[in-house]
Amino acid sequence: MSELLLDAQTGLDLVDNDMELYKILLNGFLTDNSFDIEYLQDLYNKNKLDECASYVHRVKGSARQIAAKFLAQKGQELEDLFRKKNGPLTQFPQQQAKDFADAYEKTKPAVIEFYNMN
Fold this sequence. Notes:
The protein is an all-alpha fold and 118 residues long.
């Protein structure tokens, strides 16, 4: 399952097979780009939709850099809602936020495992 969560070969391809650089990106994902659904909900409750979108975008972007494709996909779906690409947002997208949070929590161990093995 970790192969689906982290496509390390694609991630390495993105950095011309530079393992040192890839590990820097993996470490950045783990240390600089955590996701907290309660923080996102708080931003939404304060009507800060742009900040919601930016918060999700940051984590999604980090996921794309390391080829954590499932997390990036869930992030894109959630970000699109906050950017109102699918129409007005009338309530907090609880299910999509939960899906993103779950994908994040599943991806982290795969990233840690790969990082520690290489």
